[in-house]
């Protein structure tokens, strides 16, 4: 047979090692799309809510009072968490796609993800601290 069989494109060594697709690319792509769609109404809420608050003279005490409102603190926590989650998975994709050195791809993507998720957790805890402690 002059052409390779499309059902057996992998070499015998690759079949023996079991190497192949990690089967996570579709879920990763979907999570980027879903998080970006969820961020649209959250970003609009944040923008218009902030503009409304700034129109009435927004100082430090007014900012704390704004964050302490239950619906604002809940939506702000979701907004911050979703922003950092989306930045983490999208940035990881960018690093894997565009960093040419394979030796630093995984450590760079891992460090970036830890950085984004850490900032997301810190920002959510900060909003909760302001809401319940101050």
Describe the structure.
The protein has 134 residues and is an all-alpha fold. It has one domain: Up-down Bundle (3 helical TM bundles of succinate and fumarate reductases), CATH 1.20.1300. It is 79% helix and 0% strand. It contains five helices and no strands. The radius of gyration is 22 Å and the shape is elongated. It starts with 11 loop residues before the first helix and ends with a helix. The model has no long low-confidence stretch (mean pLDDT 87).
* CATH level-four homologous superfamily name: Fumarate reductase/succinate dehydrogenase, transmembrane subunit
Count of all domains: 1
Q: List low-pLDDT spans.
A: none
Main pleated-sheet profile? none
Output the CATH topology: 3 helical TM bundles of succinate and fumarate reductases
Helix share bin: over 70%
**Count of DSSP E strands?**
0
Order of helices and strands: HHHHH
Q: Any idea what the CATH architecture is?
A: Up-down Bundle
Report mean pLDDT, rounded to a whole number.
87
Mass-distribution shape: elongated
The span between the termini is 76 Å
């Amino acid at each position: 047979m002059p052409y390779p069989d499309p059902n057996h494109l992998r070499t015998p060594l690759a079949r023996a090692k079991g190497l192949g697709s990690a089967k996570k690319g579709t879920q990763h792509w979907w999570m980027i799309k879903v998080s970006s769609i969820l961020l649209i109404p959250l970003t609009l809420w944040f923008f218009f809510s902030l503009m409304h608050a700034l129109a009435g003279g927004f100082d430090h005490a007014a900012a704390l009072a704004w964050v302490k409102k239950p619906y604002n603190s809940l939506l702000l926590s979701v907004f911050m968490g979703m922003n950092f989650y989306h930045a983490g998975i999208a940035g990881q994709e960018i690093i894997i796609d565009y960093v040419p050195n394979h030796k630093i791809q995984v450590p760079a993507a891992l460090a970036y993800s830890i950085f984004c998720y850490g900032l997301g957790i810190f920002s959510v805890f900060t909003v909760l601290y302001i809401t319940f402690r101050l």
